[in-house]
Here is the input.
Amino acid sequence: MKAWLALVIWMGLNQSGAFASENEFIYWGAGGEPDGETTIFDSGLRELSKATLANSPRWGTTVFADGGHGVTQKIIRDEIRPVRTTGVGDALHWDFSKNLLERRIQSGELKEGDQIILVIDTHGGSRHEPAITHSIFTNDNQPYLLDRLKRLTELAEKKGIRLGIVDLSCHSGNTLALANSKTCVITAAGPDQYADNDFSETFYRNLRRGKSLEDVFLESRDKNKTPSFPMISTPQGRVANQLLYERFLPLSHWNTEDYKTPDLLARQLSREAACKQPPQHMAELLRSIEEWKGRLGSLMPDTTELESRVKAYEDFRTEMIRKLKQWGLGSPQMNGRYSLGEIVGTPWDQKLKELQPLIDREQDSVRKARLLGYLAIYRTAQKQKEELIRKRPQLRSFLADYNNTLNKLQMTSKFAEAIGVEERKLYQVIYRQESETAPRSNPCKDIQI
Here is the structure.
């Protein structure tokens, strides 16, 4: 009822002319978060609240985000000013705002030379055929396919309206498929990567009057401290993507606290080992460096540090994969689900402790049955672990080594970040060189804050 009331109010304002503006800024975000008072998007929203664009009467600002997190809602309500209207970040509101923009373009209310910036800052998933983009997640954790924006981009191109789509979600590189002669697309990560708040927050800080979207992107990318690969749809950006992304992608994976459980660790590192042995990454990168030298000539930055950092990372990952094999994480499973390494290395007592409250709270009978199934599996695994250690006391030393290695895996983020710093030097040079021969105008340069 509240959602429909918000839409009715918004329609009334639109009919009264309260939405007349040559520059439209729309924010969709803060979806896919667990229950609680805060979301991981709060710090980004605070940065956005300080941006010139979000506080300028030159821009009509609309925010459709979250819905249920008290602190997040307070930031939207009290800190982002002036906001024309706000609403929850669900498919209903996102579709309505998209459809209203389309109607305003078709009616001529939004006309040639007007500007629209749509920022998407929520959780995102990977692309699945036949989609050309990917899905982002609403406040109730439902997928929302960004292919729905295709018609908006076509109308903007037809009517000469400058449209910027800034996708700051994971796997956002897939959204480059929406770019055209009037639509600029900027993403926080490549098609196969997770995004991080660092780029989005830096991007918001750089949204200052007098800059183009291209300026904001380049400044934000250069300062990005994470291993992700932000992308832009300009001709220069596409060349840089083609030359660098696939080469640096295998070196941009990292582990955080969320990936310390043995089963997830095994899937990630064993999959990488099966697909391509780490030394090949180094060899391929070295070949590419020689190609880049021929292309960039005297502009080519010194790559000594890059080669050193890549070698250190690859040596580390080779050792991790060796240990995985040594521990049996790639061996036949003991109970149809877990290998020796997983049985002994996993803190089953902790997993059981975390699972029980979820079972107690679950109301849906199907999901509850699934959780009870996991409970039985974990209990069986815990008994197997106790029996194995009783019969083979030497496994206690294995367990200490296993846990110590898992802690060391936190180093992978440092390796990937260090390599990312060197990648940005190359990207900057390639982009600058390509700019010398690129068209003077592109949709990312044409959109002015």
